[in-house]
Structures are given as C-alpha cells and as structure tokens.
Specification:
Length: about 130
Amino acid sequence: MRIKLIGIATAVALASTFAYAQSSTVTGAAGGAATGAIVGGPVGAAVGGIVGGVAGSLIDPPPQKVVTYVQQVPAPTTKVVVKEKVVVGQPLPETVVVTPIPDDPKYAYAIVNQQRVIVEPSSRKVIQVIQ
C-alpha cells in the first residue's frame, strides 16, 4: 500500500509538472486535485490537492519585462551582503532594501550578495534569482 501511494504521489507530481508547463488556467489545490483524480482516482485527487495547494501558493514567475528591467538596472555603489543564502520562496532579511519595479508594483527587486533577485514586495519572498 505504501509503495502504491508513493507511486501515485510521484505520478501526480509529474502530471502536475506537465500540466503547469502548458498555459495553466486552474492552479493550486483545485488543479492538483483534478490532475490527481485523472492519474490516480480518489486517492490521487487527495494527494494532488495537497501537491497542487503547495505549488499553487507560489507566485507566478515574473513577466519578461520585469526580468529585463532588473537585469539592466544599474547596480548601487554600496554592496549588500547577507550571511543567509538567497533562496527562491524564502523572504529576504529585513535589513535588505527592496525597490519596487516602476511599471509593475506587483514585483520589487534587490541586489544581494552580488545577485539580482526579484521579490514579492509585501512578503519579501524571493520569486526569482537572476543568473
């Protein structure tokens, strides 16, 4: 039973990844449950709802114009260095100043540890690290 549940969870995760790669119109727990039901029936729906709820709580990737803006904005002369590793999904420390994107207030950016990062302003969560 345990192996079957692990197999179903894996199938749901893979199926939701493929579904997310397409233009998604139903996301989050509802999308995960629907995908899970297709792949694994009632058990798959339950597992898919949980997986989809977690994946759906992440903010969508920023539009290309936001990424381009952050790539091209001049770096400040003062270097911001923090001990913590900058990780997608985790908030930046309160000591880091985030600057709103002028044309899209849904996003902000910071340059930390010589990395440009796009963040969600209210939670300060890192959405994308620009390489």
